[in-house]
């Protein structure tokens, strides 16, 4: 009986190893190919960094990268401010329709981006907002905001309201209570929410794709266009950079926010 | 006491904090979704300068031309297949994570499993092109090992689309199942075992029923975006990669028939909402 358990556990570990291989091998191969000399991905492997060097010559790609970074940073700032405020309100006050407002956060997360993206395209075009970077920013904030509110609200669940009560009874006004007591407590949630928002925006492809114009695109949109023209090691190089950046970002997020509710 | 302060303050105090966020969501999500419904009943875009009128023609097109229905069914089938593979691959992994691994190694591996999920989806789909194409890694590796020559050319095929999508979404299934599995008290499993139930019986009678909310949540979270996917079939499916999502994409970026695209999008939205509604009782029980 013990032996069977041990064998099953061993099999389980082996299985997890297989899953990790499935998840990471393509990414690793893609990264390796970005350092391979052959532009047609021919083996044997010969080391080079020329594809990374040629990225620097690609003005279009560099412009798109800056757009992506800029939009992600602005999205993060807006989402953190608006999202934290909304979370605080939802935590602190009771009012009719609160459940409804909380439920409204899920359509943006649950509805496929294809639908949201095309709907934004139609509406922004119809009311004269148009397409371009400003429209992309408008869309990204809306997509990331519910995530920030959910993450910050989760952190607020662990907050003891007696602390606010105590501060108030010691003579602090509402603003002082918020700034000195509540905000420091929820800060890890705010930081995690901000990193989430950055990741949602920086990796966003679908919505950006429908809202981009030829001169005003983001990096994923530019990569998609390049992929559809044909595969080149340059795409591997820029993809490798993206994947390293976004994984580093999520590792950072994990430091502030425990996924999966570990006990 | 906190509740007393809270109800006293009410909506008036909450409004200034809530308004900016919800105003933004209204302008960028809820109004666009409403506008999409509105546009789907039009013959032309009102802004194009051409005369326009209300019509049911866009919906009539969906029901009269079998192409659209066929593609919607193909997308639903794709969603079903990908979801099933994610259950088959993800559930055992979630079980091992929740019940076999302990402590720091569990934390580290859990993070490793969900990490790719948060990295760029487009790039991960592209990475499969490196593996699956003829003369790609899978091909070369197998030919190096096997004594006979084989040609693996999965690229631009239906299986390639499935593989890419399962790779993209399986971490979701692991995540949701892990959450419900780790909440199952080990003593329940031990009790079942000590009462003479076999491992299989415990799995069937205790573990799977108790983790059902995680399975349903994962299935909904995977099925919905897969049915609406277009970039994955385009990159990995090539000419075989025509699905409902790619037809919608075409209406907006190639054919420029926005009203038809809006109608097709809205039909997809309706299908998605029905699926979420069916799944929601199970999900609510979990919460």
Show the helix and strand layout.
The complex is a heterodimer of chains A (263) and B (287).
Chain A: H1 2-33, H2 50-55, H3 59-92, H4 98-103, H5 106-110, H6 113-126, H7 133-156, H8 161-169, H9 174-203, H10 206-211, H11 219-229, H12 233-256
Helix pairs in contact in A: 1-12, 3-7, 3-9, 3-11, 7-9, 8-9, 9-12
Chain B: H1 2-39, H2 57-64, H3 66-100, H4 103-114, H5 121-132, H6 137-145, H7 158-182, H8 186-194, H9 199-210, H10 212-227, H11 231-237, H12 244-253, H13 258-286
Helix pairs in contact in B: 2-3, 2-13, 3-7, 3-10, 5-7, 5-11, 7-10, 7-11, 8-9, 10-13, 12-13
Q: What can you tell me about this protein's structure?
A:
The complex is a heterodimer of chains A (about 260) and B (about 290). With about 260 residues, chain A is an all-alpha fold. Chain A has 2 domains: about 10-50, no CATH class; about 60-260, MetI-like fold, CATH 1.10.3720. Chain A has 12 helices and no strands. Chain A has helices at about 1-35, 50-55, 60-90, 100-105, 105-110, 115-125, 135-155, 160-170, 175-205, 205-210, 220-230, 235-255. Chain A is globular. Chain B has about 290 residues and is an all-alpha fold. Chain B has a single domain, classed as MetI-like (MetI-like fold, Orthogonal Bundle). Chain B contains 13 helices and no strands. Chain B has helices spanning about 1-40, 55-65, 65-100, 105-115, 120-130, 135-145, 160-180, 185-195, 200-210, 210-225, 230-235, 245-255, 260-285. In chain B, helix 3 (about 65-100) packs across helix 7 (about 160-180), helix 5 runs parallel beside helix 11 (about 230-235) and helix 7 (about 160-180) runs antiparallel to helix 10 (about 210-225). In chain B, about 45% of the residues are buried.
